[in-house]
Amino acid sequence: MKLYSSFTHSLCDLQIVCDRLATWAEKWQLRIALNKCNIQRISNRDGVNITDCSPNYKIGAHVLHWSDETRDLKVIIDKKLNFNSHVSAVAHKAHFRASLILRTFKTRDPIVLTQAFITYVRPLLEYCTIVWSPYTVSNINKIESCQRWFTKRIKGMSGMQYSERLACLHLESLQTRRLKCDLKICYKTIHSEIAILNDDFLCSRKLTHTRGHNYQLFKGCSRVNIHKYFF
């Protein structure tokens, strides 16, 4: 369960909801795992210690712990929504599993190793990318480096360029696959095939005097990078 309140609202709004949650849990005799609960502020402001200037929120008698990062459905949400911590964690786990494949598999057959990478490693690098897809060069390279490193250690591929290795193994770059995934979600959102409100994410261009189809999207101006590079 996620409870949230906007900065423009009163600070007591979130506490009221927490009190209602505690009352509801007591009424239905459901125990809340309080040791797994925390509270997080999402903001662009630097140099502010959230524990010094923020109120204490409680569920019953338990005071919630303030955190800079929260893991939600395997995605690490940090206080600035830049997902640097999540990208680092995903890249580290994928590198470890790719290295494990090379150490464990006796065969050096490129087809077998490539299929093992697709099955056991690539899902780690592509899980929920429409939420955390990186836009900085460092994070893009950090994610791509796992596949670049793995393909270079396949027999006969060490002297090739990365693009040549991908062509020989019939693979696509992870950045290209993320783009295709975004386009699929974009198509499904426009045509109302998924439970996402179109107006909340995508704005259609209203121009009628130019050529083209009825699904041209308008990209508005953004004040912060969080919104500028948002899906």
Biggest beta sheet summary: 2 strands, parallel
Sequence of secondary-structure elements: HEHEEEEEHHHHHHHHEEH
- Quaternary class: single chain
Spatial shape = globular
Stretches where pLDDT is under 50 for at least 5 consecutive residues are none
Class from helix and strand fractions: mainly alpha
Q: What percentage of residues falls in helices of 4 or more residues?
A: 40-55%
Report the C-alpha radius of gyration, rounded: 23 Å
Q: What distance lies between the first and last C-alpha atoms, to the nearest angstrom?
A: 24 Å
Q: Given the structure, what is the number of helices?
A: 11
Count of β-strands? 8
Percentage of residues in DSSP E strands? 5-15%
Please sum up the structure shown:
This protein is mainly alpha-helical and 231 residues long. It has eleven helices and eight strands. The protein is globular.
Comma- or semicolon-separated keywords:
231 residues; mainly alpha; two-stranded parallel sheet; 11 helices; globular
